[in-house]
Structures are given as structure tokens and as C-alpha cells.
């Protein structure tokens, strides 16, 4: 059986321009999973997990008055990030 080695997440960091771009790219996925339309999506913090073929990002955002955490998988050769998990955060 093939298994990936355990890769730690980075420490929590402030958003970078790349993370801001990812948030805008996956905004439709976030809206679909949240069953809401958002006028603004602002990244607040993130951490990353760097693997050979893709990077996972765990991103905390403020979407209008909601706070959400989501995990995005960004496959390096496709450059099409996909939301793979979404969680509402208590305020």
C-alpha cells in the first residue's frame, strides 16, 4: 500500500498575495458549499502543507459577517485550486 509521509503544516502566517488570489479563485466554491453569496472575501491568516505534487492551504477568511476556515488543494501542474473542506467559525 502506498502512503504519503506525514508532512507538518507551517506555522500560521498573514495572507500573501498568492493566498489572496486563491481566495478569489475559489470564492464560487465557498459560496456553493456555504449556500450563501458573499460580496467580500478577505483572508486573515493561513498555513500550508507542501507536498511534492500539490500544496494544501488551510485559510481563515472573513466573508461578509461570517468567519470560515477552508482547506484548498492546489495541484502544481494544474494551478486550479479546489476547496476540499469548509468550516464555519464561531464569532
UniProtKB/TrEMBL annotation:
<protein>
    <submittedName>
        <fullName>Uncharacterized protein</fullName>
    </submittedName>
</protein>
<dbReference type="InterPro" id="IPR046350">
    <property type="entry name" value="Cystatin_sf"/>
</dbReference>
